[in-house]
Specification:
2 domains; alpha+beta; Ubiquitin-like (UB roll); five-stranded mixed β-sheet
Length: 239
């Protein structure tokens, strides 16, 4: 197939790849890039797309171009230069407009409160990345994320009623909060700024040191033996 021409009309094939529609069929579009269109490079094409409201302008900072192989293109690449190289001239070689309108992941840090060994275990707790683009998985609200964590067995089910969420500053976050809104405020966007999932329980999830337990039992046994020995000495003295 040859590039789309009709007289002096030159057309460019593009496809929209939105993160929020990752598992749905992509949308293709044919754009007139003839001389009268004044669309000389990919930046011009992008401006045209936003001016026509084909894509919400609020996503302007998270879009970029790729060719049909996934190689990233420069915004300054000329339309005619791309068509001459065989890019964008046919549906099979359509340029890909990537729109990262949904973050790919949420970072979560597990925090254990009211635990006898909380101070000791604090350095051993994990920070985890929860993927938001999993197929057939709804992670729209924070409550969905909590359910996902327990469904995957990352925490034992008997702790489900003992967890709560906090932001980096310690502010309590309700499970009804939308994940997108939290991410837009900077929470959970990276490993250094995770949301905190607080496990609030008296008994620590980590097993206690068996050696320490044996030592405590041994000490109690010594106390009993010492007490018995003292009583025996008293009886002997009285006799």
């Amino acid at each position: 197939m040859t590039p789309s021409h009709c007289g002096s009309t030159i057309e460019l094939w593009i496809t929209y790849h939105q993160a929020s529609r990752k598992h749905k069929q992509v949308t293709a579009q044919l754009i007139d890039v003839g001389e009268q269109s004044q669309l000389f490079d990919l930046e011009d094409v992008l401006d045209h797309i936003f001016q026509q409201d084909f894509v919400d302008p609020k996503w302007r900072s998270v879009v970029w171009w790729e060719d049909c192989t996934g190689a990233r293109l420069k915004a300054s690449d000329t339309v005619h230069g791309l068509l001459a190289r065989g890019a964008g001239g046919t549906p099979g070689t359509a340029l890909r407009l990537i729109i990262a309108d949904t973050p790919a992941a949420l970072w979560v840090h597990y925090e254990y409160a009211r635990c006898a060994r909380a101070a000791h275990t604090a350095t051993h707790t994990a920070t985890q990345r929860i993927r938001l683009d999993l197929p057939h998985t709804k992670l729209e609200r924070l409550g969905h994320v909590t359910n996902h964590i327990f469904a995957q067995g990352y925490l034992p089910s008997n702790a489900r009623s003992l967890v709560s969420w906090k932001g980096g500053c310690g502010r309590r976050i309700e499970e009804s909060e939308k994940v997108e809104a939290l991410l837009s405020r900077g929470g959970g966007t990276c490993e250094e700024k995770p949301l905190r999932l607080v496990v609030d329980q008296q008994v620590c999830l980590y097993p206690r040191n068996p050696g320490a337990k044996k030592g405590k039992i041994r000490a109690q046994r010594h106390e009993v033996e010492a007490s018995a020995s003292e009583k025996q000495v008293r009886r002997t003295t009285c006799m």
